Amino acid sequence: AQKITQTQPGMFVQEKEAVTLDCTYDTSDPSYGLFWYKQPSSGEMIFLIYQGSYDQQNATEGRYSLNFQKARKSANLVISASQLGDSAMYFCAMREGDTGRRALTFGSGTRLQVQP
Amino acid sequence: GAVVSQHPSWVICKSGTSVKIECRSLDFQATTMFWYRQFPKQSLMLMATSNEGSKATYEQGVEKDKFLINHASLTLSTLTVTSAHPEDSSFYICSVTPPTGVGNSPLHFGNGTRLTVT
After folding, report:
1. Which of A59, A101, B58, B117 would you label with A78, given CA atoms 20 to 30 Å apart?
2. Spans of chain A below 50 pLDDT
């Protein structure tokens, strides 16, 4: 069964607008972490933001925020004031448990294209 | 600066030959490293977990005799694709996690290696 689901293969957004990238997850572990990464065409994986299962508040990092709805098992990424440089693939990922020595499981990704 | 150095960034080899990819942790000693594979327009799939001083743990469906992993030091893990075939052409990317990392520690990725087998 898919543990991380990203239902939007591609998204378009106008420059300076906000965009939401969807992510739902499935786990029975009460302790888990959710991560978002950006992958430009160069292939590098850039860490954007993290949300822990016990965090009471939604995570924010600059223009990135995470809309965490635990009951719905969703962790959507919100990018505000989109820039042309935001065009890339975006991956949602999860780590189960509370140790950092486990791998991440990735969703299928969403390709975001920012239009001028 | 970069936390992980991966080399080479791209390689073209002939079918039947072997290719070695290196992954170095630059900022900390990494007892655990992860190797992922990414086919075009697809997600990252975990291949194996590399453990310093012990055998790697491979994911289901990944041939351990074909994808040899050596984690001989706390800063270096290597992935050798043996007897490469065109279907092994892919983007291989390694990642490291700090040894004292807790659940909120992100994985730090290398820049990846694009392998093309002709």
Report:
1. A101
2. none
